Amino acid sequence: MAVESSLDVQLIAASQFAVPPGVDWVPDAGATDAEAIVEFAGRACYETFDRPNPHTATNKAYLHHIIDVGHDALLEHATATVYIRGLSRAAGNELLRHRNFSFSQLSQRFVHEGSSEVVLPALIAEDEELRRIFLRAADETRFIYDELLRALEENLAGEPNSLLRRKKARQAARAVLPNATETRFVVTGNYRAWRQFIAARASEHADVEIRSLAVTCLELLRDNAPTLFDDFLISELSDGTKMATSPYVS
Amino acid sequence: MAVESSLDVQLIAASQFAVPPGVDWVPDAGATDAEAIVEFAGRACYETFDRPNPHTATNKAYLHHIIDVGHDALLEHATATVYIRGLSRAAGNELLRHRNFSFSQLSQRFVHEGSSEVVLPALIAEDEELRRIFLRAADETRFIYDELLRALEENLAGEPNSLLRRKKARQAARAVLPNATETRFVVTGNYRAWRQFIAARASEHADVEIRSLAVTCLELLRDNAPTLFDDFLISELSDGTKMATSPYVS
Amino acid sequence: MAVESSLDVQLIAASQFAVPPGVDWVPDAGATDAEAIVEFAGRACYETFDRPNPHTATNKAYLHHIIDVGHDALLEHATATVYIRGLSRAAGNELLRHRNFSFSQLSQRFVHEGSSEVVLPALIAEDEELRRIFLRAADETRFIYDELLRALEENLAGEPNSLLRRKKARQAARAVLPNATETRFVVTGNYRAWRQFIAARASEHADVEIRSLAVTCLELLRDNAPTLFDDFLISELSDGTKMATSPYVS
Amino acid sequence: MAVESSLDVQLIAASQFAVPPGVDWVPDAGATDAEAIVEFAGRACYETFDRPNPHTATNKAYLHHIIDVGHDALLEHATATVYIRGLSRAAGNELLRHRNFSFSQLSQRFVHEGSSEVVLPALIAEDEELRRIFLRAADETRFIYDELLRALEENLAGEPNSLLRRKKARQAARAVLPNATETRFVVTGNYRAWRQFIAARASEHADVEIRSLAVTCLELLRDNAPTLFDDFLISELSDGTKMATSPYVS
Questions:
Q1: pTM score, whole prediction
Q2: Where are the domains of chain B?
Q3: Closest CB from D99, D144, D155 relative to C133
Q4: Is the ipTM value over 0.90, yes or no?
Q5: Angle at B207 between CA B204 and CA B213, to 5 degrees
Q6: Active-site positions, per UniProt (chains A, B, C, D) (predicted)?
């Protein structure tokens, strides 16, 4: 039976910072590690560890200035890694377009035994009839997948390596699996890349599923580096979905 | 009715070269533009336009030396663009992992009307029974796609913008389309990126469909820059498919 | 004697385009190859080779639309390579920050025999007295370079490989050479990268030498793809130097 | 007076890891955070959190396998940031070629007042006579720099903005500063990029200063992720300098 999977994003790694010996500077008590790294890198460019400009003496003011003048390169020094589950292969294909990220994706050579995990588009999930049609189609596709897998393994009986036989059979049989099939990702990016992703995909014009991913990442990363994202405003569209925009991105 | 689509790759753009004024050097008559650019860039690093080393005086010898010593950065100065049709969405997802390429991909907001174009895995295409099962499944999926599309457009009747209504409906309905659905790409890469792609995907261990793409690209680009690929040897595996390897890649 | 070198930029390679078989589309007669490639890639995403939208039927209108809506990824399919001479090492260091470019740089293991080629900052070149001071300093530095080189080669007399001996001596002696030392580059980039470079470095706030390089590249590439740059306006600052800006870049 | 500066590299940030809820896996007690992230990402690709293969059940064995089969993409999920002081501008120019890194560099608009910090090549530093010649040259250059700066500021007296006047003067005057001038960098990279950098620059054929930087980074990062670097062997060359190589890099 087809099992519905829903989006789940967890922060699993992020940069931890320590001031090096020989630098007479202590980050603001309230600054997170990511925020302190970005300020450190900025001050290293001009040796302004003594905070000569009172207007940018606090971490918050310094980072706002960086975003304001567009010195985004400084944001590359802090990174965050998330683990994404419950994403459709279709949205995964869009996510892969963001080449500044590093990706590890669940292989389709691995498939859940006995059931298919699928991610339903919201417009289908919320209509009882369409949901029924969709899940039945997923079940049938899964049935055909199993049938193809069995037949292909038989056809490949001449292949003595059982691991290779199974791999070849799966590679062919997966052709029938739908776009809705669940995929999973480990995604690592620096904060400049995360801002670019959110700017591009949390916008009103993005596909609804990847938009939901982008807004979720924004909420998650905002905990880790509030000041690096406080220019983004999350709002609700007329269809109840969320979007986010910032005056600093186009 | 499901229509079978098969791989088609065409070279649509490549670098054209001209020696700049003030450089006293003429490329070998036999060198292609891509080959001449790479030699030019190499000679520019050491001002050796007078070919002081007789062992690398010809274009062929010069390029072989570059590949031998691993100065691959020089290969980045010549680029080639291909147009790929008849690739499955599954293989397209693998292709997107090659972040050094530039991609434009056929949107799934565009779908052929009235028929579904699918790319059959070789192991399925060559078995009469499995082919029949697969094409029937593709037809049924397409039928459900059309059904979902119609119902979704009805549900979205409140959306006054007909373009947006259709886009939203398609974005949701495409969730049912299979991995085998045909996709198309414009892919641009420099010759270093092309060599990396071919090294990774023409190998015996790669998935059979993307391996076929990699070998096809090798054959195509070899016409455009023979010396930059003549270390690759194309051979046939026991299952009749092709692979390629070079002693210069791992 | 120190020899003054001045900026010289030549286009040495660019993408040449051909419509692939099976695509029923002919680019506008007036479109350059670079312009046609970008339009082709855009139309390939939505299979709009039949130009369904009259507002974007011409190449010019299509490209303006792309730049307007920010589909810059399409600009990655056309590339251009330039050969830069007469750039200072200081400006070269700034150029290297543009990581989307591919670079081959004149090695400092190669040094002009008997004379030093230097790039004078405009503010120094235009003041007779400062120019004299600067050139005399360059001559002295060159004298010390030669002295160090000779002494180092003597110290390395135990090294039997004369090539390696000379290389080691040059690597150490070059430490005394000034920022003004001339360097040369082969630079390859796609049109998206070129636009980003020009946007960042042709701006009023950029260093005067790299600004001059950026404006020169703009003038050169504009010949090769007028429509991809016609949003940039070149103007003159009060000090007589040029700058360029576009409403489409920040 | 010219002040000698010597290489100093400090680790200032690195990825910290936490297993996400819902994943039944605990990393080996001995694994560092970087090592655990890489294993996590690998196991996420095949859902092998239950360690089905006894040969790769330990973190050490798993990472060795990854390096052995070349799944270097997994190494992109852990990052490390270093702060580099005491590097010459010449070596800095070479460092910038590693485009997979993120850089923030000390601006030459900032210059130590009253003294010039220079990085002496080892071959010069270890010869009393050459050292004297070199430091005297650095002093003279610094004297001319100050002279140019003063004259330029006078020439720019018409510029009402004193900050801009000083910036313009410094940009021109710095043309006389030598390659040996000290620069500083904040450099962030993932472990794949760090391995590539070390492989390229810790090799016998690299320039002695950047080789020293590469070996220092290897020693530093090895503390943070021993298993990701234990294929590298550090050895001493006949001239007393260090180099490092691994059988897994070419």
A1: 0.96
A2: 3-10+83-184, 11-82+185-245
A3: D144
A4: yes
A5: 90
A6: 201 (involved in ionization of n3 of dump, leading to its activation)
